[in-house]
Amino acid sequence: MREIAEYFSVPLRTVALVYESLDMEGMLHRIRGSQTMLTGRKHSTRKPINAIIGLPIWLQAMITSPFECNLQIELEERLRARGFVADSIFYRSREDFDPDFTERLLRHNLDLVIWQSPHPLASHVLLSLRERGIRLILLQPTENTLSLPSRTHLLDWQPAYKALAQHWKKLEIQRIVIPLPENLIARRAIRKFKILIADAGLEYVPTEATPEDLSSALMDTQNSPSALAFFDFQTADNLCNGYPDLIEQIAAQHRLAFCRGPVRVPRLNTLRTAIDLVQLNPVELAEKIVDDLCDPNRTHEGIRDTVTASFHTMQSMPGLNDFDRLSLYG
User: Fold this and answer.
1) For residue 292, what is the DSSP state?
2) Which of 13, 71, 185, 330 could form a disulfide with 282 if both were Cys (CB 3.0 to 4.6 A apart)?
3) What is the DSSP pairing of strand 35-38 with strand 28-31?
4) Strand 28-31 relative to strand 52-58: parallel, antiparallel, unpaired?
């Protein structure tokens, strides 16, 4: 205050009264070290931002899928480091292909959207965003690629599935039981997977995703050891966490396989049950997306990189902080 009083040649008491008035209006921000700052009446960013990027994500995915959580974290950190604002937008089941979802996304004033495996029925939402000038970055499995004007990063699960089938052959497993999910993307993945396992000489056994049908397919049979394979985390979560005793009995006689990444199943971690896991690398995927976005020589739309899944055998399910167990960090 003395410096201000001397600079303006006014009494110290006058400066003190001005400070008091500004403080009462909430415009004075005191900083350690006897410094003050005028915050002003209008809000503004402390640093300029390059763009606001929307990250739509299914709410249940954040609850049950460690991969989805890690991907969100990795994207947010890398985007922030490059001067972008990452806006996570959660949606409930079936909301992502509701026409109202377009308006909800638009209310976020987005410049760009990064969407992991959008539902095929959400094409109209994506096209509406594109027509409003919002650029699209889509992460799509090779067996279910939407033909939309966007930057597309492909997710290739097939090499890992071939390794998984060969692993089952070595264990002399003959039957692959797959609970049929509601998710359309998962059903399309199964359609291609059953051709792959047929070529490997394995029997495809579809079943409804209910404990009764699962028990009938696996527990009430005298056949040789089988594998129970899940192709979406919602079905895996419902059955493994909803009927843990049944899953424990199945795991004692048969293999468990999670073909679309890990799922939070505390009971399996407690039992240290051997599982087969097919997993994408969230670190690699996020790095490629952000590097491509920031490359000034790659502004065109079209197919970008392909990220290939890997196959692992585990003694427990990896969690949010366990991806280094799969050597995913390099």
Assistant:
1) H
2) 71
3) antiparallel
4) unpaired
201 vs 257: CA distance, rounded Å: 18
Q: Which helix (DSSP H) or strand (DSSP E) does residue 90 occupy? A: strand 85-91
Q: Which two tokens stand for residue 268?
A: 């399996």
d(CA 10, CA 2): 10
Nearest of 172, 169, 190, 193 to residue 181 by alpha carbon? 190
How far apart, in whole angstroms, are the C-alpha atoms of residue 10 and residue 15? Answer: 7
Q: Please say whether the beta carbons of 66 and 264 come within 8 A.
A: yes
Between the two ends of the chain, the Cα-to-Cα distance in Å is 55
Domain covering 52-156+281-308 in this structure, CATH number: 3.40.50.2300
Using an 8 Å Cβ cutoff, are 115 and 146 in contact? Answer: no
Alpha helices in the chain (DSSP H): 2-8, 12-24, 59-64, 66-81, 99-106, 123-131, 158-170, 184-199, 211-218, 233-242, 244-253, 266-271, 282-294
Helices 211-218 + 244-253 axis angle, to 10: 20
Tell me if 160 sits within 8 A of 147, measured CB to CB: no
Instruction: Indicate whether this model's pTM tops 0.70.
Output: yes
**If we measure between CA atoms, which residue out of 151, 53, 55, 150 comes closest to residue 109?**
53
pLDDT tens readout for residues 33-78: 556 766 666 666 667 789 999 999 999 999 999 999 999 999 999 9
| Alpha-carbon distance values, 200 to 108, 195, 204 (Å) | 48, 9, 11
- The domain 158-279: what is its CATH number? 3.40.50.2300
b (16+ CB within 10 A) / e for 300-330: eeeebeebbbbbbebebbbeeebbeeeebee
- Give domain limits for the chain: 2-38, 52-156+281-308, 158-279
